[in-house]
Design goal:
Elements (H helix, E strand, L loop, with lengths): L4 E5 L9 H13 L4 E5 L9 E5 L5 H10 L5 E4 L2 H10 L1 H9 L2 E4 L10 H5 L1 E3 L21 E6 L8 H7 L8 E6 L5 H13 L3 E5 L3 H9 L3 E4 L8 H7 L5 E4 L2 H7 L6 E2 L4 H13 L1 H14 L5 H18 L1
Parallel strand pairs: 1-2, 1-3, 3-4, 4-5, 5-6, 7-8, 7-10, 8-9, 10-11, 11-12
Helix pairs in contact: 2-4, 3-4, 6-7, 6-11, 11-12
Length: 323
């Protein structure tokens, strides 16, 4: 008897270079020894033993079709930030996906709070992961020419990159650079990035970079900033923490679920002034920077690849045992 065949439905593939694709690729790699795995944007109707669908709303047609064809087979739906904090509240397709799923996955524990009791009963928390990179010595008192703060994410409304750009208006220290990596999915935000780059030379927009190049750029940064309005469990937080780079994060449930309730690096969503003040405090206050480093280091074991792989394999083992 051959390996069970699992289809991973991802609304984005390699050319999108986003979080959904990174998750699909990583999970395929975790599963390939025990399962035959395919990745597709949409299910083609060919029989398979189980489906893992990323995104309740955007993968809804595949979820509905698979459930109709194989109602007793495992159907795992992984909930993203837009699922949890927008779509399942108002979108009928997303709500239907929750009902059809035999199992649900959220990527940080705060996501459970958005689900009703019936959905919670079939939900697992699986933290995503990233391989640890050799940490560059960033002792808080080590002098450096530039204090680089990197933001990673394609420009769209949910990521709120304008907050990062506007922070440049409030920075006083001349050695701070704001490095922005990501393509302009929203043309208006791309225009704002160009305008910000012209007015404030400390803001640098590098556009889209390959994943490996992005991680290396992040590793050399002193801070990573995430300004999102909603997040399910941001890959960029994991990649920063596992690279020894402290995070400044918008104070939203998805980020709190990743970094903990008592993390010192939160700022109110959309508050560019507060973000700039936190950046300057981290750049000028070694004790505060060291506190951010220590708190992130404490979270790093949650984001270990072996932990994520074990959680995923256990989930699938339970799925096939129950069917």
């Amino acid at each position: 008897m051959g390996k069970p065949h699992i289809v991973i439905i991802s609304p984005a593939l390699a050319n999108a270079n986003n979080g959904n694709w990174q998750t699909a690729r990583r999970w395929s790699r975790f599963l390939h020894k025990d399962y035959r795995v395919s990745i597709a944007v949409q299910w083609d109707g060919h029989p398979c033993d189980a489906m893992i669908a990323l995104h309740a709303r955007r993968s809804a047609p595949s979820i509905a079709a698979f459930s109709a064809a194989f109602p007793s087979r495992p159907l795992i739906v992984v909930l993203t930030g837009t699922d949890l904090y927008r779509d399942i509240l108002t979108d009928a397709d997303a709500q239907r996906s929750l009902q059809l799923a035999t199992h649900l996955v959220v990527l940080q524990p705060a996501g459970l709070e958005m689900l009703d009791q019936a959905s919670r009963k079939k939900t697992r928390v699986i933290f995503q992961s990233a391989p640890s990179l050799k940490v560059i010595n960033k002792h808080p008192e080590t002098p450096s020419r530039y204090f680089d703060v990197t933001m990673i994410g394609h420009m769209r409304n949910e990521k709120d990159p304008a907050t990062f750009m506007h922070a440049a208006e409030f920075l006083q220290a001349g050695n701070i650079r704001l490095i922005h990596i990501g393509s302009a999915l929203d043309p208006a935000l791309g225009k704002l990035a160009e305008k910000t780059r012209q007015r404030h030379p400390q803001y640098q927009w590098l556009g889209d970079l390959a994943h490996a190049a992005t991680r290396q750029r992040l590793k050399r940064s002193r801070l990573m900033a995430i300004t999102s309005r909603m997040e399910g469990g941001a890959n960029v937080i994991i990649e920063a923490v596992t690279s020894g780079v402290p995070v400044l994060a918008s104070d939203i449930p998805g980020n709190r679920g990743m970094l903990g309730e008592h993390y010192a690096g939160y700022f109110p969503p959309g508050d560019s002034l507060k973000l700039a003040q936190l950046i300057e405090r981290a750049a000028g206050d070694p004790k505060f920077y060291g506190r951010l480093q220590a708190q992130c280091a404490d979270r790093a074991p949650l984001f270990a690849p072996e932990r994520e792989r074990a959680s995923l394999l256990k989930l699938l083992e339970n799925c096939f045992t129950q069917t």
